[in-house]
Amino acid sequence: MEFSEDDLHELKYRFEDATIKCSERCLYQSAKWAAEMLDSIVPIDRGDTDSESQMEMNEPATAPINPYLRTQDPIEAALEAQEAHKYLLAKSYFDTREYDRCAAVFLPPTTPPVPLSVTSPNAKPKQKRSTPLKGKDKASPFQSSRSHGSVPRNPYPKLSQKSLFLALYAKYLAGEKRKDEETEMVLGPSDVGTAVNRELPDLARGLEGWLTERSAQGKEDQGQGWLEYLYAVVLLKGRNEEQAKTWLIRSVHQNPFHWGAWQELNDLLGSIEDLKQIKDLLPENIMTLIFYVYCSQELYQATDDTYSTLNDLQAIFPTSAFLQTQHALLFYHNKDFERASNIFNEILATSPHRLDSLDHYSNILYVMNERPRLAFVAQIATATDKFRPETCCVVGNYYSLKSEHEKAVMYFRRALTLDRNFLSAWTLMGHEYIEMKNTHTAIESYRRAVDVNRKDYRAWYGLGQAYEVLDMSFYALFYYQRAAALRPYDPKMWQAVGSCYAKMGRVEQSIQALKRALVAGSYYADDNPGAGARKVLDPETLHQIATLYERLSDEDEAAAYMELTLQQETGGAPIGEGNESDEEEYSSASEQAAQSEGECSGDDEDGRNTRSRRHRRKPRPRTSSFGMQQDDSTAEEMWHHPTATTSKARLWLAQHALRNGDLDRADQLAGELCQDGMEVEEAKALMRDIRARREDVG
Amino acid sequence: MTRYLTPWRISLLCLITVYTDGLVPNSSAIDVLSFLTAGLFPLDPADKQWEKHYLPRITEIEEVLSGHESSVPGRSLWDLFLKKIWSLDSLDALEVFFNDEIPSLLTKTREQLIQDRDHGLAPENEGMRLSRSSPLGAFVRRAYLEYTRLQFHDSVTLWTGFVKYRLPTYNMWARRNASDKQDPVDINLNVHGFNSSAYLSHVVYGSIEDDEEDEGVVSVKDAERLIEFQVGELQRLGGRVPEEMRAQLKRIITSDSNAPVLMYYLEYLDAWRAGDYTSAFDNLHRYFDYTMHSNSDRSAYQFSLLNLAIIQADFECFSEAISAVQEAVAIARESHDMNCLNFCMSWLYHFGKAFPEQMREVQNSGMLGNEKEGLMFLKAKAKDAEMWSLMSTTILSEAKLEMQQGESLATIVESFVRASHINVTKGLSNPTGAYILLQSAMYARIGATHLAWLDTEVFRECYMEGHPYEEFVKLTFRNCQILAQKGNYKEAFARMNKVEPERLRAFKYNNSWTYYSGLLQLRRQINRDDKVAVEHILAQLQAIQLLDFDMRLLLAFHTIEFTLRQGDTGRALRMVEQAANTMQPENFDVHSQIKLLCLKARILEKSGHPQRGFSLAMRAASIAHRSKVLFDLWEAICTLAAVLLSLREFEATAELVESIMPQILEAEDSALTARAYSLLVDANMGIAGELSTSKQGGERTLARKEYVNRALGYIDSAYDAYEEIEDILGQTEMMAKKATVMHLTGDPVLANDYAAKYLDLRKRRGAEI
């Protein structure tokens, strides 16, 4: 992907244009994003051949007028010029957060924004039923108005698109504000997730009318993309996702540099298949590439393809903190915590005031158990703004790592008070509530997280755990499956599914799931350089499978898996070590969750789910987290350490051998057990038994 | 402003850990511990270095510690302390310090021990652990609790403050511990690979190197300590807030909104002392309002009413003061608050003494009974409630009452002894001032001026520090008054002016000081017969309107004396009548009564009707004799002698005066001495005259000559005494007499000389010396 100088110039113009237009429409976040990207574009070297001669003097820095800045459409331009002062008034109202007043500048309340048709009384009661929780409810008011057949009319006066967007956007925000006010305290009595933005039906009808009028006039393709975007957002809020998707795609075609539209589109995509589906519908430009990277990251697709695209993009935007963050998050999803945290460190050093996605960084540090660093990051964030959801999450994570769960919950709640849609806070709060044994509240917070973003596998997984604690395996299974669908290559998910099946007595399915976990885990291990030659399997899982086969009284299979487990002594020792301590922990922890957790926390996954780590105050050896990535030389020395699991397998095998009359093998295994100092009592009993039999025979 | 924890408290905690690690040898333990306790306890005014112990800087800790060797060879305590504070290398380290290390300093509670046993942990007995209720233990527990309730950003502020606090010691520490040199600010900055000037550290720590003292150094607790200390000082000494302290307090108050409520009380005290009625009331009510939530059961209502009454009375709103104090008494009775009730009663008693006319209503209601009953009541109550200070002052009040009513000297002295006994045995230092003041007045009354002088000197030498400024000013005045009596004006004025302006910043004291200085001046100018100056000073003094009845009377006496000297006997007589009328049974004083009687007799004498003053003088003398007010007795006898002179009873006069002469000399009052001498002159001359007129004879002439010579000697003595107190009139009179005597003895040259001198003196009248 080569970019010529002209392309870069154009790119600059486009971003500049996007920044200005977004801020004109008070889309602050998108404007910020565009400006950041604009700032990070690789500096243009005037003339590649003679880079020394600085021609800046000759180059009239301000002379080239951004060709995109002008309003293209003459009608629109005329309208905008006409409304200029009104627009200024409305914008100033918007900036002072007087949304209703802002809307009233262009949409005087005397002209009813919605025609008083017969549909409205019918639509009202339905609107009440349409809670966001119900998902794609058929009774959505936005469809109902159409299904009734009333011709949607444009209720708005003749306005430029810019002004109309501002006015409607203000209306929308006013509704959101009121909705937030209605819900009051986070998880309080009135916060039951049923509050709705009451402006939505009006907006939906109005926009629909406006857009159909446009298409009737044949101006469908001359839209600027803004109102389309707003309509999509409104549809999205009404859970009308398919329609929203088409409108968003149209919007990004018309106005590709509006990041907000891309983000909404990303939120719509639940899986990689969805992404593949719409990929062809998207325009072909640099924004699509950025979107692709972002989307892949959000969908945990840390593939080579993603990396290469990201690298290309970073060539153009070398200093973009956004892209760096994506890079770091990709590493994070790949469990490469060290590199991820290094990238975040760099970002922090260059722009310490930047708080965006610091919460992810804190998650990474949490997993790495880097308490001083986490405290430091929290300190930095607090220094910039202590009332940002990101800051609160970082601090909450810190307290969580210190096992001060009450304080952690306090900070997560604060984050949610500041922004109810702050996803990670809901999930993290769920973890804290699990920790505090408040399972019901935990379920509620996980549910909110899932409602905000259906791609958060941690929340799904958390839900599963919570139900497992409550001994409701049927529910738990469902949620584990969702989590596993989102992270098909994450063995922990499959382990959870497997143990759930096992608990429900569906042994075959359980074995299948566990085998899947085995495959995912081994694939993962193979993926890493250094460990590639060796096929590393998780002994824990193997042992589980073996015991399950035993339950099915398939002794041969069981013995085979036990043997495999034993073989892992020379393969996956550091992992096993982690397991051992985990299990010790669990003997005292709550019984229900313990079993599954002990099983699934085998390899070091995202620590947010590995509850056990929180109990442990003693610093965990780094090797357990990075055993897979670290060089073999250190690992080699630890290879032959038998663990509790392998010892169990050994014992089982010894007994198995005894049953089958293979006394020598049994004796050998029991002897090994005695040497290792594990299960000594059992082993000695076994040896006595063997001796007795031998004497019998002899 | 943080609630409790400040950087220096963290360093005290570090010091405590050094101590509990057993690194402090026995020889240094006392110094370390006393430094710790000085920082933790309320500020002690007896501590001369309290400023150092309030918010100690790190240099002050160094001062204390660097001299001491530790148990580690080659390392001083300071080194170990540095090592400790620099081991806190990041915010997380601070968290760990507070959450893990601090609780482990304490002995385990019973529950913890039981828990340990249940978990099968062997009881460990290594290391020193602080008892939970010891001062250090309480501090550690409080610190732990306070840290737990800190929000994250508060702990960040604390940490940043601590980093700045210890920064000056970085070089010292790094020199000793070159091996583990770290970033002077935060170990995390090192990890990130930036030096401390980088952008990031600036964001996190701000401009760390500037010396500017910033917030977080003073906690609410510290502000409270300071204000409590200041309120204590104000209540103890009655002064005002010093300027530097005011600046400091202002900084504390403006730095944050949650300043301690006690601040308003302090402002109230200050405004009160400054005589600023409006702000005093404003602040007092503000204080009440802010403290309302803490005593919703009206537990402090009576005290606030008492406070109100006191301040109302001080600003002369008597009726309101009385209604307030009556309410206070009612509430105190209702809530059985004996302490407050006793205070109220005591106050009411003194108020009644000072303003009898305001108390009629209360008197009539029979709340207190008569004075004696009131005092008995107070004494009994004070003893019951073991309020020794109140008891001591009540006994003193009793002594004063007895003195004023001229009762038995023995009882009065007994009261003094009892009061003194209580003061000594109960370790009270507060009533000492009042005690000395009253005792010196008592000595002055019985004519033992040197003892009175001694008392005031004792106060000046021993009790000047740490006693209410009011008493200090009064005693200084007494002291100077005695000096002035002896004619030592220069010294008297010097002492008066030596009173530090700091002590006179309160409006009231400044007022009394001015008044007292004015009185001394007045006395001198009257003696000098400087009419202009006297009238000037008089006008000023009368404008001051002091509330103290005794002082007003003193001024009245001076005025009468002046009028008398001017020869306006009619007016003087009217003034005496007026003064007599102001006397009420409540503020009746035997001394004033005698003084008034004597004055009246003198006026009559001057107006040429000495015989009419005879009965007055007799009455004065008999009263004085009966109540052993000896100083007044001598004066009364002098007055009587003057009457006798007019009756030509020269022999008797001479005998009378000569018999009391030693006592008069002992009284060290030059005016009285001069007067007595002049009476003796007249008496001797009278005797001589009688001898010359009655019979002739050598023996008689000899005798006459002897009397004349004696008279001449007395004239000289009287002249000297008059000269001492700069009494021009007396001097001229003596000079005139001397000239006459010379003339009579037939020595015209000398007579002429003396006459010239007389004229010279007359010219000097009123002129400046």
List the helices and strands and how they pair.
The complex is a heterodimer of chains A (698) and B (769).
Chain A: H1 5-24, H2 28-40, H3 74-82, H4 84-95, H5 99-106, H6 119-129, H7 141-147, H8 161-183, H9 200-216, H10 226-237, H11 241-254, H12 259-268, H13 272-279, H14 286-298, H15 304-316, H16 321-333, H17 337-350, H18 358-368, H19 371-384, H20 389-401, H21 405-418, H22 423-435, H23 439-452, H24 457-469, H25 473-486, H26 491-504, H27 507-527, H28 539-551, H29 555-567, H30 573-588, H31 591-600, H32 612-615, H33 622-626, H34 632-638, H35 644-659, H36 663-676, H37 680-697
Helix pairs in contact in A: 1-2, 4-5, 4-8, 5-8, 8-10, 9-10, 10-11, 11-12, 12-14, 14-15, 14-16, 15-16, 16-17, 17-18, 18-19, 18-20, 19-20, 20-21, 20-22, 21-22, 22-23, 22-24, 23-24, 24-25, 24-31, 25-26, 26-27, 26-31, 27-28, 28-29, 29-35, 30-31, 35-36, 35-37, 36-37
Chain B: H1 7-20, H2 26-40, H3 50-53, H4 58-65, H5 77-87, H6 91-101, H7 110-118, H8 135-148, H9 152-166, H10 170-176, H11 187-192, H12 199-205, H13 220-237, H14 243-255, H15 262-273, H16 277-291, H17 301-314, H18 318-334, H19 338-354, H20 360-365, H21 371-384, H22 388-404, H23 409-425, H24 432-445, H25 449-462, H26 469-485, H27 489-498, H28 507-528, H29 531-544, H30 549-566, H31 569-582, H32 590-606, H33 614-626, H34 630-646, H35 650-667, H36 670-694, H37 698-724, H38 728-744, H39 748-764
Give an overview of the whole structure.
The complex is a heterodimer of chains A (698) and B (769). Chain A has 698 residues and is mainly alpha-helical. Among the domains of chain A are: 1-44 and 66-70; 74-214, no CATH class; 276-334, no CATH class. Chain A is built from 37 helices and no strands. Chain A has helices at residues 5-24, 28-40, 74-82, 84-95, 99-106, 119-129, 141-147, 161-183, 200-216, 226-237, 241-254, 259-268, 272-279, 286-298, 304-316, 321-333, 337-350, 358-368, 371-384, 389-401, 405-418, 423-435, 439-452, 457-469, 473-486, 491-504, 507-527, 539-551, 555-567, 573-588, 591-600, 612-615, 622-626, 632-638, 644-659, 663-676, 680-697. Residues 47-63, 115-149, 524-534 and 572-639 of chain A have low confidence and may be disordered. With 769 residues, chain B is an all-alpha fold. Among the domains of chain B are: 7-205, no CATH class; 648-769, Alpha Horseshoe (Serine Threonine Protein Phosphatase 5, Tetratricopeptide repeat), CATH 1.25.40.10. In chain B, 72% of the residues lie in helices and 0% in strands. The longest helix of chain B has 27 residues, at 698-724. Chain B is elongated and about 125 Å long. The relative contact order of chain B is 0.04. The mean pLDDT of chain B is 83. At the A-B interface, helix 17, helix 19 and helix 20 of A face helix 6, helix 9, helix 11 and helix 12 of B. Chain B: This is Anaphase-promoting complex subunit 5. Chain B: InterPro entries: Apc5, Apc5_dom, TPR-like_helical_dom_sf. Chain B: Keywords: Cell cycle, Cell division, Mitosis, Signal, Ubl conjugation pathway. Chain B: Residues 264-354 form the Anaphase-promoting complex subunit domain. Chain B: Residues 1-22 form the signal peptide.
